[in-house]
């Protein structure tokens, strides 16, 4: 037998010389017959028997059910979207945002050249130019409200978001949101007169929203995608709070949200470069989950299978590939210590949301007055930004958003039968009449595995029995579309 280490070295070599991810699938006498809707994006396989490769740490349970799960390969349209992301355009966006001097939430909203108002108007103007090419499918709005005196708000101020909404062609009521915040700050969060360039925090995230809006405006995703630039983040997540609450008040079906915040640099404070890694932060037990449901989740070992973590696993499955060139480690927490971001208001509103952030932050370049002190340059200056890195972050976002918007919605009301003792697992879920839907797959993984490892196609049904004990593995159910796109998995609760 080959050792586990050698096995993965061989796999890495094979993957390096092929743009198509490789599946290692042992022959399975229990594998359900291949169905006509079997995902065409997940079909390349190398069949290797279990007695050739053996990894002790991953050998239990030794179940030969289903096939090893393959990462999704971008189709031609997604490849085209990814290829159009332009580092030079990202650079131009960030240069323009930096040119406003400060974008502090409390800064001028009427000066045409300096302050957050000038930045807001320019972003809206650019988004409207993108929408002009959409044949009426993209709408740009600037929702706003007057925030009264509060935390980091010493006087009433208008909070304005800029949102470009690309209407879905098949399921327009289902939304996916991507955002960056366009406000900035200096060392003192109440100093709105100092220069606060905010190149990394967070012109980089705004540039991704704008570049993806430009590229996708002329395309037709099945579900709706909203590209947002929000304000008030540094003062207390006010702009994202406005957006999330607006969606909630209108009962908008937001199925996923990403904030890109501090995604502009690949260099750490010690000079270490990591230009091919992007962190995704994913909350565990949902903020809005009742105490009773959270208790059930804990009792069945579902703490690591919250909706946010299923979304993060989805991102890894569709965006960690040779087309993006990015590794995407999932960080199992809401956010960094002592920090927060614009995904939090969406989580509080009951939506599923994650945060993207560069791998190693340089805190001399965040929330700092621009100055040189003891030979160290402080300030969030554009000279510290890596535009090629941001473009790759944009590719990750593009792969995630496009794959989500063109897949069916995740299965709803998924349950596992716990009314009897048995060594198989029985699942039910709500039947869907979605146009995109071709069928369902049951996913499973060992309880200590971070990502889904196996998939079992079960057809266009609303129940399935799997000859594998629910006591020994983690299960999820996902929907698969006629186009091959698959949804994030849904974790089953007893029912």
The number of helical segments is 11
- Give the N-to-C terminal Cα separation: 43 Å
**Spatial sequence of strands, sheet with the most strands:** 4-7-9-8-10-13-11-12
Number of DSSP strand runs? 22
Largest sheet, strands/sense/barrel:
8 strands, mixed
What share of the residues lie within helices? 25-40%
**SS content category:** alpha/beta
List low-confidence stretches: 1-57
Q: Can you tell me about this structure?
A:
With 495 residues, the protein is an alpha/beta fold. The chain has eleven helices and 22 strands. Helix 3 crosses helix 5 (199-216). The longest helix is centred in the last third of the chain and has 20 residues, at 387-406. It is globular.
Secondary structure: elements and pairs:
Elements: H1 4-16, E1 23-24, E2 45-46, E3 67-68, H2 76-84, H3 87-98, H4 116-131, E4 138-141, E5 144-147, E6 157-160, E7 162-166, E8 171-181, H5 199-216, E9 223-230, H6 233-236, H7 238-249, E10 253-260, E11 279-281, H8 291-299, H9 307-319, E12 330-331, H10 343-348, E13 353-357, E14 371-373, E15 376-378, H11 387-406, E16 415-416, E17 425-428, E18 437-446, E19 454-459, E20 463-466, E21 473-481, E22 493-494
Helix pairs in contact: 2-11, 3-5, 3-11, 4-5, 5-11, 9-11
